[in-house]
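Q: Got a minute? One more chain.
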Amino acid sequence: MTQPAPFASIDDVQSVLAEQNYVCNRALATVVFLSLRLGKPLFLEGEPGTGKTEIAKAIAAALGRRLIRLQCYEGLDASSAVYEWNFAEQMIAIRTAEAAGDTDRSALKSELFSDDYLIARPLLEAMQSQPGGAPVLLIDELDRTDEPFEAFLLEALSDYQVTIPELGTVKAPEPPIVILTSNRTREVHDALKRRCLYHWVDYPGFAREIEILQARAPEAADALSREVVAFVQQLRTEDLFKKPGVAETIDWAKCLLALDVMELSPQVIADTVGAILKYQDDIQKLQGTEAKRILDEVKSSLEPA
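A: Always. Here it is, folded:
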């Protein structure tokens, strides 16, 4: 069933997200629009640092909704993602009851397993009413979890409800806006993907990465921005263990601005390489004349024809 769309059109998605400093191409804007219109989860897959997490933040900010983030990790299970009981407070209540001579175990048990002692985790929070409307539920880096958690998640997102054995089933009054991300360190099961609209978030082209950098670091001069983006894009063609993402482009530009750098040089690159490369093997590949070689290619490509 379709729902009233928070965005009026695909163009509206692009312009509204641009107001949140998120530069979105039309293909991504289209799948965001359809996800919200159809009420289907959005599954975003791609290399780290390409803006998958940021789009959830931008959508939440643009719509004035609460962002609820479930950061996935190896060993994450259903109970950790949904709820837990406040055992410390429960023990205090038990000791208080014992000291007061309260022997009604049934009443005490009913009190201990009530909302007063329940700690809601992201999935349960997303199923509860939130000020401003249904929240944006970001399930980040799903590929870090295992298949049993995927199976649980498939069930939870089918009916937008979770079950707490002591309290019963909690069903969302309004389905949350669900965005799942994966860095593709492993394949996510087809059953979960089929419930979602899918989009591969790739590294942006030169022009769009310039737009992104201008939105996130507007104080950077045009010439420096072009050199930074061209250099990072050239690095992505090199044989590196971990290619720099857009996040690294932005971080590097901000580092250069903090150092009052006006243009790139081999020395500047050597001094700030830790902003764009995060593995020593990759950094070593940029030592000596290699950085100068890449920089010369970059400057040559940027020269007017």
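A: Residues 206-294 form one domain.
Q: Perfect, thanks.
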